[in-house]
Amino acid sequence: MTSQNSALVPVVNIPPDPTGPVYRPRHFYYDGQLFEDPGPEYSPQDILNFLAATYPELRNGTWTQRTLPDGSEEITFHKVTGEKGAAVTVAQLLQALDTVQPRRIAAFALTQQITTLVATEQLTPETMLAMGPEIEAALKEAERLSTSGGRITGQILAIPASPHNRVPLGF
């Protein structure tokens, strides 16, 4: 059974339009490295986005472009410095910090207590044995606080930088 629409269509090679835009070779640079031009179908922004996967500092990056004497284009990518959490105002931060209540950490109190016992020569094996459950609880609390602090630090480091017109202090 043959189909009526299965006629062969001749393939015709159409030469490029000589009046169309001339493709100029491009050279992409970042941090002193040359990157190969993947082709005219990719804009500098496409290539910047691709490189940002390997170089995260380029996520908010920009580029400069110039024509070289041989007619090729040189495109150089630049990172843009930013500040983490720039969307949070000072007033909002102060308001949030104002709600934080200080908490006495058991390990610090226990350290002070043991230091006092040592200074007054009252620390004995029996005293240490009696303090065992309190010491264990303080160690568990310290471990939990350490894990929490690491998690919070990781979340802060994951906040994307936002472009800023100046280099932040301590950068």
Brief characterization of the structure:
The chain is α+β, with helices and mostly antiparallel strands. The protein contains 5 helices and 6 strands; from the N terminus they run E-E-H-E-E-E-H-H-H-H-E.
List keywords for this structure.
171 residues; alpha+beta; elongated; disordered N terminus
Please give a structural write-up.
The protein is an alpha+beta fold and 171 residues long. Among the domains are: 26-80, no CATH class; 103-159, no CATH class. The protein is 37% helix and 15% strand. The chain has five helices and six strands; from the N terminus they run ββαβββααααβ. The chain has helices spanning 44-52, 90-98, 106-119, 125-130, 132-157; strands at 26-30, 33-35, 62-67, 73-78, 82-84, 161-163. Strands 2-1-4-3 form a four-stranded mixed sheet, covered by helices on one side. It has a two-stranded antiparallel ribbon with strand order 5-6. A hairpin with a 5-residue loop joins strand 3 (62-67) and strand 4. The protein is elongated and about 95 Å long. The protein starts with 25 loop residues before the first strand and ends in an 8-residue tail after the last strand. Mean pLDDT is 81; it is low at 1-6.
Q: How much helicity do the residues have?
A: 25-40%
Biggest β-sheet strands, sense, barrel:
4 strands, mixed
Number of strands: 6
General form: elongated
Secondary-structure content class: alpha+beta
SSE order? EEHEEEHHHHE
Question: How many H/I helices?
Answer: 5
Q: What is the CA-atom radius of gyration, in angstroms?
A: 32 Å
Q: What order do the strands of the largest sheet run in, or round the barrel if closed?
A: 2-1-4-3
Low-confidence stretches: 1-6
Distance between the termini: 75 Å
